[in-house]
Amino acid sequence: MTLRKGDKTPISIQEHMAIDVCPGPIKPIKQISDYFPRFPRGLPAAGGRSGGPRPAAGPPAVGPAEPARRRRRGGDESDEEDDDDDDVDRLFGARGATPAQPPAKCPAAPEEPVDPEGYESDDCTALGTLDFSLLYDQENNALHCTISKAKGLKPMDHNGLADPYVKLHLLPGASKANKLRTKTLRNTLNPTWNETLTYYGITDEDMLRKTLRISVCDEDKFRHNEFIGETRIPLKKLKPNQTKSFSICLEKQLPVSGPGPGPRSGLGSPPPRAAPHWAPLPPQIDKTEDKSLEERGRILISLKYSSQKQGLLVGIVRCAHLAAMDANGYSDPYVKTYLKPDEDKKSKHKTAVKKKTLNPEFNEEFCYEIKHGDLAKKTLEVTVWDYDIGKSNDFIGGVVLGINAKGERLKHWFDCLKNKDKKIERWHTLTNELPGAVLSD
């Protein structure tokens, strides 16, 4: 078609999205490309396939090569669709890609590194903090835990308060034998206890391999008590005879794991699991020497040869961490002593029965009239029993002191012989073997 001078160049219909179908001359409406920025060939579009920066928005820029490019395309509709796709990609990114980011007015500030301790601070603060101190009395084999106070505990009751108490548990070990607790304070989130709880029979070996778990709980009268938070202290962090104070944020409940007493039959034991970061790895223990450390418990015995009474004074002070023999998770323990050989069978002494406890305190003393020179030929057998009504009493554990003993048991006996009129106390681990000829109660 020949164009007259002054006539406008006709626009092909392929470059329109629609036309005005009203009577009269065809009047094209604006192209869709007019609503999007158009860049000359070779310049990247922001958020598109090249991901470059986007210049300031303005009227579409058509380069000198644009009419020629349109003529070369020859009105192919598929090419026009691709062109529209290019425009959409410039705004929203290529197909299958993430949307383009908005233009940045200024360089982004570098992100601050996350503090691993600060990351948990909000959660810890929400549970509260606990102040306490620990002291290991090495001479008396006692661990003293003084619970001072707590602050900002998590509300557990409908009134926005709690009825908190603190519970201690030595890991690994049976929960009943190792559990101690404070009194309960009512309707407070900032309780002050100032209460000292003591574990007896704690040895240097325990301090190396055990962990003290301290839990704060809310007591409920009509339902189960609720857990608030806890903390765990490896006892190897303590120095003997030095008090160490702590003020620690409570944490969420952690699983109780680590080596502990398995089934007595030895069957059905779960596979070993990796110890968590808070649990110290226990040293290898000779099973023949201490095969029932966790199951049977310990006993504190005092020995003294009295020159005045011409006899051996045997004191049964207390037991700690005894095995649970009853269905309620406790025992009703008592202690028997024999000085062997006992031809007349008159050497038997027996303490009172302590009801429903795994940490009984006896403080009873028995006297065996015997010459000092004859003690080297004697053996002291001490056994711990669980009292049952209407059936045979259960044997919990025993220990033998004398010249045929080994280790601490032998040392305790010799120290008594060497030091007349001096009371010597020692903790001894109970074994699950009946000593000597003691076959029944």
How does this structure look, described?
This protein is an alpha+beta fold and 441 residues long. Among the domains are: 61-92, no CATH class; 122-249, Sandwich (Immunoglobulin-like), CATH 2.60.40.150; 292-429, Sandwich (Immunoglobulin-like). The protein is built from nine helices and 16 strands. The chain has a four-stranded antiparallel beta sheet with strand order 5-2-1-8. The chain has a four-stranded antiparallel beta sheet with strand order 4-3-6-7. The chain has a four-stranded antiparallel beta sheet with strand order 13-10-9-16. The longest helix has 16 residues, at 77-92. The protein is elongated and about 145 Å long. The N and C termini lie far apart (127 Å). The model is unreliable at 45-124, 258-294 and 437-441 (pLDDT under 50).
